[in-house]
Fold this sequence. Notes:
The protein has 388 residues and is α+β, with helices and mostly antiparallel strands. It has 11 helices and 13 strands.
Amino acid sequence: MSRQNYVFTSESVSEGHPDKVCDRISDAVLDAFLTEDPHSRVACETFATTDRVVVGGEVRGPGSVIARVEEIVRGCVRDIGYEQEGFHWANLKVNSYLHAQSADIAQGVDASGEKDEGAGDQGIMFGYAVDETPELMPAPIQYAHAILRRLSEVRKNHIEPKLGPDAKSQLSIRYEGGKPVEVTSLVLSTQHLDPALSSADVRAIVEPYIREVLPEGWLTAKTEWHVNPTGKFVIGGPDGDAGLTGRKIIVDTYGGAAPHGGGAFSGKDPTKVDRSAAYAARYLAKNVVAAGLARRCTLQLSYAIGVAKPLSIYVDTHGTGIVDEAAIETAVSRVMDLTPRGIRTHLGLNKPIYQRTAAYGHFGRKPDADGGFSWEKTDLVEALKKAV
């Protein structure tokens, strides 16, 4: 039996965090390729520091996109909101080193003759769902994201123009009987454009929005608040701390509440199972919980490079399941083709839907009408019930 009474902490970072700036650029490059050719192959990495962005990686797709990398970078940085000395969308230097995908990798991944499309790499991917929030996500990460997303909205809408793009949130939530009931501590560090603002001033700005997004009663007189605990946060983004694609994999997923296979998502096209199979694993775990087969579900998939079918499927319902885990493992393989091609087809992943995933989590989001966040649908519920 898992613990029922405890405190668990997760953090989120905003779209202006240096690493998230890089994730955004990498996914914007990916979307540009997929817009022109849905069968493009992309593995794009970005590095950002004071006044400079470096883009590199392996691609196979229209050369016209490579020619537009600088334009894509400046567009992302401008939309995020950086117009500060040391990192300004109009003045930063952009270096692009994108080059052709390795032929050795391509021959293993591409379909040919009797061979189906293989996985883009070896590895393990985890999906997770739990019934403690309406989105079937762990509460600490879900609400840490919600705080920063709301602050971004009021910043970009010029309701709170003194806030800057760079921010981090952290929530420690007390669980009682396995359910989240109270925020024991809250940490928020947010960039501010007015150097004269104190920590108390910043708290006065952000507190109403924090209270707006957290469930009623979770903030109590005992909740510890730490808003801009260093006292000042004016220099933000890559000018204050260098950024790199793929360094926020726990922020991107479940906030540490579930295992992680280690592979980052951003900048990778959906033939890379690091991304697509992690989405499939979340999709299946969420549908298991939505179907009432368990209140909590961890699902692991594993792959070998160049091989189509997953090597293994593992399910753990943490003592909350109403059917045997082995039956769920068999059922998920019946209701969904878990080859790379099968995942891409089922979830409609060969579309320019990735830039929007770069901040505030890849999971726990509402499915979009154009196919974005398709892995958040719960349309396998009936099929799973029948399959077990």
